[in-house]
Amino acid sequence: MDDDRYAPPADLAARANVTAADEARLRAEADADLDAFWLARAKGLDWEREPTQGYDGSGHPFVTWFADGRLNVAHNCVDRHVDAGRGEKVALSWEGEPGDRVAVTYADLQRRVAQAAHGLTELGVRTGDVVVVYLPVLVETVVVMLACARIGALHSLVFGGFSAEALRFRVTDGRAKVVVTTDGQYRRGKAVPVKENADHAVAGTDVEHVLVVRRTGQDVPWTEGRDVWWHDVVDRQPTTHDAEAFDAETPLFLIYTSGTTGRPKGLVHTMGGYLTQTAWTAWACFDHRDDDVYWCQADLAWVTAHTYEVYGPLANGVTQVLYEGTPDTPHRGRHFEIIARHGVTVYYTAPTLVRTFMTWGTEITDDHDLSSLRLLGSVGEAINPEAWRWLHEHVGGGRAPIVDTWWQSETGAAMVAPLPGTTTLKPGSATRPLPGISVRVVREDGSDADPDEGGLLVVDRPWPAVARTVWGDPDRYVSSYFSKFSERGWYLAGDGARIDDDGYVWLQGRVDDVMNVSGHRLSSIELESALVSHPRVGEAAVIGAPDPTTGQAVVAFVVTRGEGAADEDLTVDLRAHVTRELGPVARPQQVHVVSVLPKTRSGKILRRLLLDLASGREPGDTTSIVDPTALDQARGALRAGEQKRGL
Question: Which CATH number applies to 439-510?
Answer without folding.
Answer: 2.30.38.10
